Amino acid sequence: MSAVAINHLFGFPETIEKLILPxxxxxxxxxxxxxxxxxxxIPIDILESSKEYIFYLDIPGISKSDIQVTVEEExxxxxxxxxxxxxxxxxxxxEGSKYIRxxxxxxxxxxxxxxxxxxxxxxxxxxxYQDGVLTVTVGKLPxxxxxxxxxxxxxx
Length: 156
Known about the structure:
The chain is mainly beta.
């Protein structure tokens, strides 16, 4: 479904549309990219306030040192993790025991990309990782007053 169709269906404001809809660069296809572990299912919430954008990403069991947050190409927020969550094999190490159900996915090679809106202050990006939740905060630039433009009138 195209970005225009999604915007029309859900009535996204332009700012939100830029945050959650596809980055139009070849080879990426959408705003999140995964390699290996099906990480497009990792939930993320994006909150816009009057002063900042806040991204909440659930990635439990990953070491803080295995997470990277960068801003690339001036307006693309990139969240990466090459860390792997270790499965607790405490009870399975006993002979004759085995898992009979495995539903919790182990994150592998997480890469998520988000195009930031024009009012995002890319020099004011902070990240905090606590209790399995990565919180990335991107400040907003103060609104710029519209600049009047003088138009020259041509005489024909």
